[in-house]
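User: Need the bound-state model for 4-methylsulfanyl-2-ureido-butyric acid:
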Amino acid sequence: MTRIITVAAAQLGPIQKAEPRSVAVDRMVRLIERAHRRGVEFVVFPELALTTFFPRHYHDDITEADIWFETEMPSNETAPLFDAAKRYGIGFHLGYAEITHEADETGRVRKRRFNTAILVGPSGDIVLRYRKVHLPGHAEYAPGRKVQHLEKRYFEVGNLGFPVIRAPMGGLDGVNVGMMICNDRRWPEAWRVLGLQSVELVALGYNTPSLNMEATGFEAHHLRVFHSHLSIQAGCYQNATFAVAAAKAGKEDGNELFGHSIIVNPQGEIIAMAASWEDELITAECNLSMCELGRTTIFAFERHRRPEAYQRITGQIGAVTPRVWGA
Ligand code: CDT
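Assistant: Bound-state model below.
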């Protein structure tokens, strides 16, 4: 059966440190209006879409960084985005920094900070929440780095796993939607956990610097975009899903983030790609029935997966060295 949904990646150009939420929200509302004119039913915005990519800025006292976080969603500042999307019956994915007061693993309720994304249905309801699991970067100020990447300082590791929900989207009764945030896309484990829940559409936002600030050796610049696309295309193919990947791009606070937002089909093909590093809407018609081919043949998990041979995947974190032949 043909099940078609028209989706968009709403790439955002840079947001400078001094710019208030209202500027970003206004730009996102313009993109929702554009999406409506193009018949789009689901829009994906980037990671931490409401502010500059603040993990590049060091705050000695972490509470000083609370200015970058949201304590409620929607809020007065983000309500116009929810209103616009609801007016047009468009669902969306939004990344933002979240402060919540919740029990931790010891049962103690405390203030907690996460790099979060929500899935909002066409009715305006939040239908799914995801908190970033793979936090790159470092927790302490790194004097040797030209640009800091302090995600490990400002965020806890996400505590919601990789959830998928079947939610009404566009004209369809139910679409199996999952979420990832930026660095997660590089980890096949994340894709597989979504694949094991029959995901059909992965929404993911990212902020990726054009240069590898951690590299001690040479890394060719063009490979940064290649690795992003490679990860998403492989994840889609191996899990028989579509993905919509939206960048925040351009020069933010003097630091370049690459764009090249893409939409990918279950064959791993790029079916739309951004050509600018500005606010840009790329769209594609996704026939979700295409997910059937992979999941009933080469990636029919129930027939071909061998979890008994994969124990290292969950039992081990770092790599061990192999047994030496002849020793
Ligand atoms: N935001 C984010 O996760 N960015 C990373 C780059 C990290 S470099 C320390 C990414 O994987 O794109």
